[in-house]
Every structure is written in C-alpha cells, then in structure tokens.
Amino acid sequence: MDVCGSVLETIGGTPLVELRRIAGRARGRVFAKLELLNPGGSIKDRSALAIVEAAERQGQLKKGGTVIELTSGNMGTGLAVVCAVKGYPMIAVMSEGNSEERRQMLRAVGAKVVVVPQVGTKRPGQVSREDLEAVDRETTRLTRQLKAFRADQFHNEFNVRAHELMTGREIWEQTEGRVTAFVTSIGSGGTFIGVSRFLKKSNPSVKCFAAEPASAPFIAGRRVTSTSHKIQGTGYALKPPLWDDDLCDGFLTATDQEAIRYARLLGRKEGIFAGFSSGANVACAMKLARKAERGDVVVTVLPDTGLKYLSTDLIASNSVSSQ
Ligand SMILES: Cc1ncc(COP(=O)(O)O)c(C=O)c1O
User: Fold this and answer.
1) Is 44 in the pocket of ligand 1 (CB under 6 A)?
2) Residue ranges of domains in the chain
3) Ligand 1 centroid to residue 186 C-alpha, Å
4) What is the position in ligand 1's atom list of the atom closest to the CA of 189?
5) What is the chain's pLDDT, residue by residue, as a tens digit (323 residues)?
6) Nearest residue by C-alpha to atom 1 in ligand 1
7) Is 44-150 the same fold as 7-42+167-309?
C-alpha cells in the first residue's frame, strides 16, 4: 500500500508553481511554493516538526510533556498537529488581534488557546509590536508555571534548520539550480534565513531579499510609521534574534493594499486561495521580476491558506446579484 504512517509524513515536499498569469509580460519568471498545502495550512508545520523532534532527541521533551508557544496562529497550529500525532498537550498563546478562525483551527487540532488582550485600542486582524510583547510576557509566565517546553521559534535554531534542510533544498532541486532570486516576508525569519542559507551555499550568486510591510521597514533600517498592518505573522518591527545580515541582498516592501491585491489575483488568476503574507510575497516577487533579466527565476513562498482569513477583508465581494 502506498500510504503514510501519520499526517506528519505529509509535511513539506510542497509543489512549486509558476505564476504565469500574474507575471504576464514581466521579464523574470515568478514561482511560488505552495506552503498552504501543509496539513496545518501553513509553512510553520515544517518548523514545528523540526523543533519537536530536536527537543525529543535532546531530552527537553519527555513523554506527556506540555508544549507551549507564542504564536500568530500558524506556528501554534503546526505544533498542535505534531503534538496531536505524538501525544503531547499543547498550549498556544496568541493576541486577541489574530483572526478568530486561527483560534478555532488550533482548538480543532487539540490545542488549548490562551488569548492575550490587545494593548491600547482593539484592531481586529492587526498585531503590533506592543501586542507581541504582551503575548511574550504571558508565554514566559505560563512556561515557568507549567514547566512546559517552549518551542521558541524566534530563538530556536531548528526553526531555521527546517527551512535550510527542507524548503531551501526543495527550491534548489525543483528549479534544477536555476533559481536566481528569492524573496519572502519576515516573522521569526526562519524561512528567509534557512532558505537563503541553502541557496547561497549551493550558488553564492543567488540574490535573497527580505520583504517588510511598507509601514514598518524596520530590518531595512528605515522609519517605522505603524506596526499595525494586515500582513499577519510578519513585520513586527524587530530584528529576529537569528537574523544574519550576510544573507540579505536587499529589502522590499508591500503595503496592505498590495498584499490584498496580489492575494486576490492569486485566487482569481491562478486558482490559489492564499493569505495576506502570500499576497505581500507575490507583490514583492513581481517587483523583482519586472526589473529582472529575461528568464531570471524569482522564487517566493505562499506561507498560508486564505481559509485562515475568512473573517477579514481579504476576499473581494464579487457576488453576482440574482436580478
Ligand atoms: C502567515 C505567515 N506568513 C509569514 C510568516 C513568516 O515566517 P517566518 O517566521 O519563517 O519568518 C509567518 C510566521 O508565522 C506567518 O504566519
């Protein structure tokens, strides 16, 4: 029988799809890796699996131990998927600003969800740096209280390794070494750092770009006007602790409007229903493709599915009236 022993065997190995209809006549070719097809609906399943299995090997996580994580939803869901299969209780600590369906998905795969109230005014669908700091304080408190294993995606090197050994290698192999540029948005930085490390090791001339929200180009060292934006899971106006300047050839930005526009184009032109950061990533990949040499291969990732944003303004109201 050609079957999987558990859903964990379906993590990674995602398809790389050329976005021909969106790229149109741009000089470069644009390819997107469909991370939304992972079982938890996001790229973070890869990090979750790598972090939990490293903790098991290193004895930090023993039978019945509780796993806890600060999450915008995706890392928590990835961990919950892994914990459900392996039998660990899982607690996800998240901001009230993250969308409701993210909480529901976490609960559906067995996680307990602790929701931290937003700092100052409530902004549905938007999580600022101050909100993230409040979630961090609560996660630290609960970790001590419960003697839990904190996955700690922002500091855990296995978050990066997952993308170096899996995502980066897959992109290299799927493009048969022809990738010329890579771009992605930054949350923990795991995707950018891991993928860029593998690609540059394989071919030092591959150019790697970090995408940031237009209102918070913090890592680029530019002025931050607002840390409240719609590109959830990214753009916290902080330099990820695992960041490596040597891997980054430049910075690009996307506005909320660009992220929404390209997420909608992904749906309408390519038949791919993806989230805000996917829209931002494709917007930035298009900026590179327009300036590229003819035939250059620009690769990005689509970090999560649009199903995680049904309660937001991601989807256009294009219903046809019955009259
Ligand atoms: C929707 C979404 N996009 C992008 C990212 C950024 O990924 P990374 O943490 O690897 O930088 C995340 C991280 O959680 C995310 O949830």
Assistant:
1) yes
2) 7-42+167-309, 44-150
3) 6
4) 11
5) 999 999 999 999 999 999 999 999 999 999 999 999 999 999 999 999 999 999 999 999 999 999 999 998 899 999 999 999 999 999 999 998 887 888 899 999 999 999 999 987 777 767 777 888 999 999 999 999 999 999 999 999 999 999 999 999 999 999 999 999 999 999 999 999 999 999 999 999 999 999 999 999 999 999 999 888 899 889 988 999 999 999 999 999 999 999 999 999 999 999 999 999 999 999 999 999 999 999 899 999 999 999 999 988 999 887 565 55
6) 233
7) yes
- CATH level 3 topology of 44-150: Rossmann fold (3.40.50)
Domain 7-42+167-309, CATH number (from 3.30.70.580, 3.40.190.10, 3.40.140.10, 3.40.50.1100): 3.40.50.1100
pTM of the model: 0.95
User: What length is written for the chain?
Assistant: 323
Closest ligand 1 atom number to CA of residue 278: 3
SS3 265: helix
Residue 321 Cα to ligand 1 middle (Å): 37
Which positions are catalytic? Answer: 44, 277
Round to whole Å and give the CA distance between 64 and 247: 39
Distance CA 80, CA 87 (A): 10
- CA-nearest residue for atom 12, ligand 1, is 233
User: Is residue 190 within 6 Å of ligand 1 at its C-beta?
Assistant: yes
Report DSSP state, residue 35.
G
Tell me how far apart the alpha carbons of residues 68 and 152 are, in angstroms, rounded to a whole number.
8
Please tell me the distance from the alpha carbon of residue 264 to that of residue 183, in angstroms, as a whole number.
19
Which protein residue has the closest C-alpha to ligand 1 atom 7? 187
The two tokens of residue 23 are 């790229």
